[in-house]
């Protein structure tokens, strides 16, 4: 018996480590609409909890807040409490799916300067996008745990100019339509600190970032919207971009810094691809290149 208990504990620990490693949202299970107290049935007690939540008399867990929303309008109002009462009385059925998925995550996180290429005094734009769940979403950016003021928190972009070099912690808190938030740490530097340099040669063209529209560098087979974006800095400011995969040209020079690659196939003998970009300064003719490795998961 002790051996079985130890195995269960070990499995739980491994599962927790895996979820934290891949940054999976805390809400990983469906929520039953109307079951606010999570007792696997819908009763008057659930309607009462919803009313108390609206009156700020009861503090509910995120999952419980999701369960309050039963009339399908993506808001929690007295109509939801009334609807639960009607469901209990058998007068109506819930108009939304009995089991709903409210959990959300982020789809990607990019910046116009990669960590280690950002420079004091040069603006950097940080961009992220919510994935799954119910929007509209709002975004709050934190630099070293201090919220940065934004003109519009529904904007998924932040432009920021660093005034000193060093390593920074950059987080984003995403909030869904019901006011439930999830904070994602160190999004723009592969889980580590975001490094800003003291200075750079501003006369020399550089590729400041090469990024893509997926959550990680492991791209699922069959993803049909894979695209790569390159950013350049310095030089004349007028650029053209050419993209390559494993040395093969996939799009010749163009002013468009986004290249649609489409669907990545899986080759059992080839599980990774090298994406390269060459940027050309159209005034001086100077060029600069940068690359990244993409891994195919299935």
Could you please describe the fold and organization of this structure?
- This protein has 298 residues and is an alpha+beta fold.
- The protein folds into three domains: 31-100, Orthogonal Bundle (Type 1 dockerin domain); 103-200, Immunoglobulins (Immunoglobulin-like, Sandwich), CATH 2.60.40; 202-298, Immunoglobulins (Immunoglobulin-like).
- Helices cover 17% and strands 37% of the residues.
- The chain has helices at 2-21, 44-54, 62-68, 78-89, and strands spanning 31-32, 99-100, 104-111, 118-119, 124-132, 138-143, 146-147, 157-160, 166-168, 170-175, 181-184, 194-197, 206-212, 218-220, 226-233, 239-245, 248-254, 258-262, 272-281, 287-297.
- It has a five-stranded mixed sheet with strand order 14-20-19-16-17, with no helix packed on it. The protein has a four-stranded antiparallel sheet with strand order 7-6-10-11, with no helix packed on it.
- Helix 2 packs antiparallel against helix 4.
- The protein is elongated, with a radius of gyration of 24 Å.
- The two termini are 37 Å apart.
